[in-house]
Amino acid sequence: MIALCICLLLTPAALVHGSLMDAQTDFGFKIFSGLSQDHSNQSVVFSPFGVTAVMSLAQLGAAGQTYKDLTGAMGFSMRERGMSRQQRLLQSAVSAEKEVEIATGVLVERKMSIEKGYRRALAKAFLTHPHQVDFSQPEQAINIINAWVSDNTNGAISDFLANGSLTEETRLVMLNALHFHGQWKVPFDPRLTQERMFLCANGTQTPVHMMRLTDRFHYGEFVTTGGVDYDVIEVPYKGDSLSMLLVSPFERDVPLSVLTIELTSHTLRRWRQGLKMVKRQLAVPRFTLVSDLNMKKVLTDMGLGNMFNLARADFTRITTDEKLCVSKVLQKVTLEVNEDGTKGASASAAVMFSRMAVEEITLDKPFLFLVQHKHTGMIIIIVKGRFKGPYYVIFLSIL
Fold first, then answer.
1. Distances from the Cα of 158 to the Cα of 7, 136, 152, 153, 352, angstroms
2. Residue 362, pLDDT above cutoff 90
3. What is the pTM of this model?
4. Which domain holds residue 370?
């Protein structure tokens, strides 16, 4: 398998770098770096825009320590003065490109009331409103979400959530969908595409269809803080407002993690300043990739583990009806690069649930049974039982 790390960063070249965009870029790169390390021998396609959007939706509803954790990890707060306007302008600038389509949505359990302040925040920053869904019918809710994603990715992603990915405990799903279809400013000639060997991250080689193009490109040579030499070449799409940046170390045995760990908004600006127009022959694989990512581990490693814990998470700015926490943060990305251009789509979701909503508790899995004497806590019997299946540990104590 070809091991590539691709960050689908759609930033119009003409867009002025603002504090929010830089902070969102840095946050997305941190997640991408973590994903790249966790999938060091696998291909990773990631959309920072999508995950940053759903995490921003969560931050708008966070309070207390959860809000502080999110703000610290993300490097910005959507509740700061002027940030909602910056978010609207950023999303509007990207959506204005005819090659890009973006949608953001929040689906809420129909019986749960939403705080007015959260409704206003969604409208102000993302121009969206909560839509009611009956999560007591989880498979029906999955079909609704998958249809929404398919509609907003031009059919590129039609099976975002698998069966069983939502339960009756689901209370809210934050969504972002992105679709991109850009044609190269100078297309690759299919007649020049040849099969060549590609060096995989695990040291093996595999044959790939390698496209070739000789043209004048913006190109630069750079060095990491650790002394690793690498080059950057920019391949523009039609209209010149969007482009693909290809980054590769000079030495064939250098792992990509050496480069991904140093990706920041400052790095992007340094590249822009250091690129020069030169004539080069570019050879790049023709490929199609799909990534299904669960970012719970990466986000936990970034200090956001408490938002996945029902006892510690605080999303009371969303609702006070029930205590909410995040159960998973998911993303699916498809990417196709060929002689004509690039087709890409991403769907991102932050799923929230509440155990307080469970009407029936079924002990059909391993459990602990404790009867506590409140004054002493004395346990007088420990039972290890088996009920035609796994062993169960039961603790009994006097009342």
1. 21, 22, 10, 8, 22
2. no
3. 0.85
4. 362-399
